[in-house]
Amino acid sequence: MTSTFGKQLKLYADRQKGSKRTALDFQYVVAAGKDAYPTVNITMAPISDETSEAQWDHKRVIQLNRYELTQCCAVLFGLEKELRANFHGTEKNKGFTLINNGASGCGINFSQGGDMLTHMLNHAQRMEVGAFILKRQADAWDMSVSDVLALLRQSVAIKRA
Q1: By CB distance 3.0 to 4.6 Å, which of 38, 119, 133, 157 could disulfide with 139?
Q2: Tally of domains within the chain
Q3: CATH number for the domain including 104?
Q4: What is the pLDDT of residues 85-112, one digit of tens each?
């Protein structure tokens, strides 16, 4: 799936209860293969109520393709409503949805074989993840983050025209 790992950002839904307690990890990677490109792996794991520890042995991992990475930036910065990344994994049974919930933040759903995990990002976390993902998009496009944001805004304007 990946060949090179880089920076990491971890978030925890500590205030949630039950199955909504999850840990979220974003990590810079370079996609393997002849078309190697900078992207991000997103990992989500449940947090045990008993130990309050992330159960990384029950994690779900998805690697965003180059177009999903771009869409992820657009959703995190409120330019698009949602990102759906479906049919991932060797069995094509993994899916990831990122939903723009306006000023309150973003919702993340991660499914694997019909089982779902959810993580809610508040506004501050959304900005932190947004900056992290935006920097990776800038790496992938070999340009500044301000240029990436300008292009994302232009893309939305073109779609609306």
Answers
A1: 38
A2: 1
A3: 2.30.31.10
A4: 887 878 888 889 999 999 999 999 999 8
Predicted TM-score (pTM) of this structure: 0.90
CB 135 within 8 A of CB 146: no
Per-residue H/E/C for 42-86: EEEEEECCCCCCECHHHCEEEECCHHHHHHHHHHHCCCCCEEEEE
Which pair of structure tokens corresponds to residue 13?
């839904």
Query: Is 84:95 a contact under the CB 8 Å cutoff?
Result: yes
Whole-Å CA distances, 40 to 60, 125, 152, 157 = 14, 17, 18, 26
Q: What's the domain range around 59?
A: 2-160
Return d(Cα 149, Cα 161) in angstroms, integer: 19
